[in-house]
Amino acid sequence: MTKNCQSTKKNFTMVAQSVLNFLVSVRRLPPLSELTGDEERLLFELKALQDSGVDLTVAGVYKLLQGKSGSTAYRNLNGLKAKGLVDVAVDGQDGRKRNIAFTLTAERLFRQFANS
């Protein structure tokens, strides 16, 4: 291996370790430290959907978590709600539809990630 290649590999390893340390540190902070792995994944998948312009609905959560039972999807969504990260409200025009919105706590968390 050339000296330049060794140096590049060492730099990459150092950066990867720094990123990993950062992620572990952030994961230990509330509210993330209070989430299960499934709740954390759902939270960030919902954020990605919102960023792509998709309306967030309870029905959408069921579709998003295909392969999981409806009760598991609902439990994960309720976990996010109980931990103050999302609100669920009946749609004003269609009483059968339930919309999901991020709380200020979740928005603050997303801003922290964006600014890191």
Describe the structure.
The chain has helices at 3-27, 37-51, 58-64, 70-82, 104-115, and strands at 86-90, 98-102. It is mostly helical and 116 residues long. It has a two-stranded antiparallel ribbon with strand order 1-2. A hairpin with a 7-residue loop joins strand 1 and strand 2 (98-102). Helix 2 crosses helix 4. The longest helix has 25 residues, at 3-27. The relative contact order is 0.12.
State the main characteristics.
62% helix; 116 residues; mainly alpha; 2 strands; single chain; 9% strand; 5 helices
Number of helices: 5
Broad shape: elongated
Mean of all residue-level pLDDT scores: 83
**Terminal residue distance:** 34 Å
Helical/strand content category: mainly alpha
Element pattern in H and E: HHHHEEH
Chain oligomer state: single chain
Across the major sheet, the strand order is: 1-2
Helix percentage = 55-70%
Task: Report the radius of gyration as a whole number of Å.
Answer: 18 Å
Number of DSSP-assigned strands? 2
pLDDT < 50 stretches: none
* Biggest sheet layout: 2 strands, antiparallel
Beta fraction: 5-15%
Question: How would you concisely characterize the structure shown here?
Answer:
With 116 residues, the protein is mainly α. The chain is built from 5 helices and 2 strands; from the N terminus they run H-H-H-H-E-E-H. The chain has a two-stranded antiparallel sheet.
